[in-house]
Here is the input.
Amino acid sequence: MILHILTKAPDSIVATQMQQAIGGQDAVLLIEEAVTAALDPSWQAWQQCQSRIFLLSEDLISRGFASIATDNELPTLEMDGFVALTEQYEKTVTWY
Amino acid sequence: MILHILTKAPDSIVATQMQQAIGGQDAVLLIEEAVTAALDPSWQAWQQCQSRIFLLSEDLISRGFASIATDNELPTLEMDGFVALTEQYEKTVTWY
Amino acid sequence: MMQYGLLVMGAPYSSPAPHSALRFAHAVLARGHQIAGVFFYHDGVHNASSLMAPPQDELNLREAWIELHQQHAIQLDVCIAAALRRGLMSESEAQRHGKQAFNVAPPFELTGLGQLLELQQRADRLITFA
Amino acid sequence: MMQYGLLVMGAPYSSPAPHSALRFAHAVLARGHQIAGVFFYHDGVHNASSLMAPPQDELNLREAWIELHQQHAIQLDVCIAAALRRGLMSESEAQRHGKQAFNVAPPFELTGLGQLLELQQRADRLITFA
Amino acid sequence: MATPDALLVIIRHAPHSSNWLREGLDAALVAAAFGQPVNLLFMGQGTMALLKEQGSGAPGQKATLPTIDMLEMYDIDKLWVTEEALQGMHLSADALVEGITLIADQEIPGLLQQHTQILNF
Amino acid sequence: MATPDALLVIIRHAPHSSNWLREGLDAALVAAAFGQPVNLLFMGQGTMALLKEQGSGAPGQKATLPTIDMLEMYDIDKLWVTEEALQGMHLSADALVEGITLIADQEIPGLLQQHTQILNF
Here is the structure.
């Protein structure tokens, strides 16, 4: 079980590469530029990883997407929750 | 009339942005990572800029695409030809 | 309690990676874990530059790493090959290369890539910021 | 004969931009044009680092720029704000910031962004490498 | 129509991702301070620099919004964004700060032609 | 199947574009030199590191091919590339150096699961 950390926009080639690598039990955390995924609830990874994909709250806030994420009912995590995820998942892979 | 210099791969967001900005009389020079366009003669910009789009020869060679570019009958320029283009076109915009 | 290793590969002010790494490090410690070490590789080596002088209203990332080191005795290793290429060297490297100045000083240590692999072996988790 | 200005915004060994810029500069001169100046901005400021020490079988980009300056008296300007943030400073800036060392020396000159806009006005062509 | 000696600064990078946005805006401000007419075109992720809700980012990361607000004082009053870019980012125009001029994607080549000088960030 | 303590190094960057490729391969070589079993997965532009025709690049830019050739000496003999990646780049397998193992895109998640350690470049 792997935690994938995406740092680039959901329409980037990097995001596509990550999506190819996600296994059935894996989780995804969206940080930095990747939080733009909050704007697009139709992004395929939202379906692919249902209930195991999260947005990093502080990066959402700094970019002005916090209320959009709330409107779109997307799951967010604080930095503390990020650490909790890395406790659960033995391996992490960062996509940048 | 503008010379557009693309430095990133043809399937990148940067390439799409450049394609949006190309005017009817503009020319395009593909350098650095952009020379991967040699692999894909179906890339839309080849049609869009017919006879005004070029690959930088030395970047093709270093990446191992020189013979592919020849096979695909794509127009290449030496560094000297790059300078010649900038003489012809008053403005250049680099997309990176 | 777990041991975390951090791999930082982005430069301050050009990449958000060091900021994210630093905030993550504090959250790791706040949850009672330990940080076995931070390894700076690729453009991340710029985090160690003692000549970094950002505007006063911006965080000085080097100082923030040093503070982390001072408070929690966390090792700050910088890949020597990546550093030298990019203009970062310690006093002893400067001597070896005949340079008049240096810009990497303790607690940052220049070291080989082997240290990264050793960190990955030793830590329960290795998290990359790039 | 035309005047060219070059804007370089990539760091050596992390971006191919400085290499491309340098080769372009030589081709410009070979065609009988002049280079009114080179401006280093964003991560391009790292081109000026006197502490850069790449492996011997790789081109030292700083030295290549200096050679260009020596042979053709081309001005090498480095944006001071971009430089200070990224750990590059001249002797006088080092004094001002209370630093013991510096890593930017002539022919590289720290200067304001105004110099870039002045270069763009003065040159017939401004070509960006980033 | 842009005045003959106008500078077009193209902004394509988002806040907090790199220093491209800040250094691009700095170039625009300095040009304006030197008395040059300056216009801005925001493309792709650059559009996010105009979001009115954005914050200051991680501790020590400066906010972009104060700089955007400063543009008007420097007589930089043309801030172009394309409707297609907004749609592509799933943003509506009222999420942006005041004073943005919406154009169509197909007007971009014309904008570039009109300006004597262009800087692309 | 990878051995229990194997390291997977993922290479996603092309030669001459940045130092990511070189520094990724360096990490693989050092791990192998330390006796760790190392396997390589090439994705996207990283595939281009395997082109047999590539040259040394601009003056002073080192070639990648000698490093690729060196992998075998370090007992790094699994070099995975997906058929879809090759198709996506419009490359045929015989443009690549010897000793590449072609897999399908859908095998990637399994590869990642099998390895205890992963470094992504």
Q: What stands out?
A: The domain at 2-95 of chain A is CATH 3.40.1260.10 (Hypothetical Protein Ychn; Chain: A,). Chain A touches chain E at residues 9, 32-33, 36, 39-40, 58-59, 61-68 (CB under 8 Å). Chain A has one domain: 2-95. Chain A has a mean pLDDT of 97.
